[in-house]
Amino acid sequence: MSDFDVLIIGGGAAGLMCALTAGQRGKRVVVIEHADRCGKKILMSGGGRCNFTNTGVTPAQYLSANPHFCKSALARYTPNDFIEMVERHGIAYHEKELGQLFCDESSKQIVRMLLDECEWAGVRIETGCSVESVGQDDAGFNVRTARGMLKAPSLVVACGGLSIPRMGATGFGYQLARQFGHDVLPTRAGLVPLTLSGTHLERLEDLSGLSLPIEARCGKQSFSNAMLITHRGLSGPAILQISSYWREGDALTINLLPGDDIPPLLSQWQTDRRDAQLQTLLGEVLPKRFAQRLTEHWLPNRPMRQFNSPELDHIARTLAAWPIIASGTEGYRTAEVTLGGVDTDGLSSSTMMSKHVPGLYFIGEVVDVTGWLGGYNFQWAWASGRAAGMAA
Q1: What gap in Å lies between CA 173 and CA 177, rounded to an integer?
Q2: Exposure winner among 9, 78, 107, 336, fewest CB in 10 A?
Q3: What's the CA angle centered on 174, arms 30 and 326, to 5 degrees?
Q4: What Rg do the C-alpha atoms of the chain give, in angstroms?
Q5: Residues of the chain with pLDDT > 70: what percent?
Q6: CB within 8 A of 295, min separation 6: which ones?
Q7: Cα 369 to Cα 383: distance, rounded to the nearest angstrom
Q8: Mean of the pLDDT values across residues 196-215?
């Protein structure tokens, strides 16, 4: 049996940040990671360049049953705090768009930075080590692993959600939460491609690979970015973002010309391009193949002079709110995050510690806090990991 001060289950972004923080405070820390190496989701993120934070982080970019819960941790560990560590390690980075920061070279640099910080802080990391059971007695937590029993007064659960099971994702963190009396809110795939079926899919599937800028809207939420048509449905940043707000049966509309005031544009075409076909003109502002498909199935195709005012209104409404009937999502297989998770009502927002079990902490994706696409989920990992690491 080995004794530690802090035992962390999960060597991902949140777990490593918690470990290095606690280690720097002089705590004896061990990280248990069941995969063969730490930070697998970090390595694959951002196309291998890791979108490690976002300069525009506010609580408004997070979904949770309690939207106030994330405020404390995010305020006490900001994107600038993480950027300072990145710069201290000499990692070159750039802003891609919308405040998203990426490594110039490789996401491996972020993992290396975290592991180096852990090493300097004396953290012990056990990879390829599965947890068989977790118990508790008066002295703390007893964790039986494939390599023997570990014991610590503080236990941090940082083993993520259900997204991307091929990376080793499991529901173990939720299992532990329930074991210790915590509620787990229903989970579902977030930041995930949407699937189409029937007529909608038949009309679009042969356009697979085509991308265009759009504004996706579901209820009161909207996102402007690219949409990608796939052989199974729709993807791209705008669709991934709206997927976290969409539920089966919800209405979903797409503004196909988000940068244009559409009615005046149509009026201008009718005045200046009277003999041009609608499809031809749409092909100048949309991908030609997509414009052709629109006028085959959703819009009439005639010379502009032949449209009356009600018909122009119909065209404008369709372009501004093209209706999509999504049949579902691609699920956890391709989802970037898991929505739902450990109910924040049972946790301290300042320390991430359980209100039911002293010394037990939950951080990162396992908690019911989910960010937008664009570095927000990593910032939650850093902030929640830091909060627990300062308290454990």
Answers
A1: 6
A2: 78
A3: 125
A4: 24
A5: 100
A6: 278, 279, 282, 301
A7: 12
A8: 96
Cα 365-371-74 angle, rounded to 5 deg? 85
Contact (Cβ atoms closer than 8 angstroms) between residue 42 and residue 50? yes
Question: Which residues lie closer than 8 Å to 109 by C-beta, 6 or more apart?
Answer: 50, 89, 91, 103
Residue 370 has pLDDT above 90, yes or no: yes
Task: Kindly tell me the burial class for residue 267, based on how many C-beta atoms sit within 10 Å of its own C-beta (0-12, 13-18, 19 or more).
Answer: middle
Residues contacting 347, CB < 8 A, separation 6+: 69, 353, 354, 355, 362, 367
CB 338 within 8 A of CB 189: yes
Predicted confidence (pLDDT) per residue in 123-132, tens digit: 999 999 999 9
Are 244 and 161 in contact, with CB atoms under 8 Å apart?
no
Categorise residue 352: left if φ over 0, alpha if ψ from -120 to 50, beta otherwise. Answer: left
Identify the residue whose tokens are 């991307």.
164
Provide the pairing of β-strand 62-63 with 140-145: unpaired
* pLDDT band for position 1 (cuts 50, 70, 90): low
Is 0.85 topped by the overall pTM?
yes
| 290 Cβ neighbours under 8 A, 6+ residues apart | 207, 210, 212, 229
Query: What tens digit of pLDDT does each residue of 170-182 get?
Result: 899 999 999 999 9
CA 166 to chain centre: 17
Kindly state the tokens that stand for 297.
């199935």
Domains and CATH numbers, the chain: 2-189+333-391 (3.50.50.60), 194-329 (2.40.30.10)
Report the amino acid identity of residue 346: G
